[in-house]
Amino acid sequence: MSAETAAQAAYIVAALLFIMSLAGLSKHETSRSGIVFGISGMTIALAATIGLASRSIAWTGIVLLLVAMAIGATIGLLRARSVEMTGMPELIAMLHSFVGLAAVLVGWDGYYQVEDKGSAQTEIARSLLRIHHAEVSSACSSGR
């Protein structure tokens, strides 16, 4: 099994765990298991991403990735520890803004990986380019 195939499988498992997390978070009684599913899904997705990226990225890129993760974790932990229950909607809104920003950045990257090569690109079949453009537009518009 290639690293790309393993990463794809890990992303599918992570996506299923995210869906289970949302289902678990919908009820007070199952919220703890929902949080565990979400944490597990994110751990799997991060491990797959770092494992896949480490094969073709310079060490400076890995260091920058780890620094960005540390900054994000620090901001999240500091805000989560200092927020009162009445401020919870603002905290959730702030964290969702970061998710939206990540969606926009992923969309831009997906767009430029294909568009930068122009007609010489071979990642996506010509017949699927419109689907790719719709996916990128969806990712970027969900970040707004």
How would you sum up this structure, described in words?
This protein has 144 residues and is an all-alpha fold. 78% of the residues lie in helices and 0% in strands. Helix 1 (3-25) runs antiparallel to helix 2 and helix 4 (88-115) packs antiparallel against helix 5.
Helix content: over 70%
Low-confidence stretches: none
Order of helices and strands: HHHHH
> What is the helix tally?
5
* Estimated structural class: mainly alpha
What sort of overall outline do the alpha carbons produce when their principal axes are compared?
A: globular
Strand content: under 5%
Query: How many β-strand runs?
Result: 0
Q: Kindly report the average pLDDT value.
A: 81
Radius of gyration: 18 Å
Largest sheet: none
Task: Write the SSE topology.
Layout (H helix, E strand, L loop, with lengths): L2 H23 L5 H23 L5 H24 L5 H28 L13 H14 L2
Helix pairs in contact: 1-2, 4-5
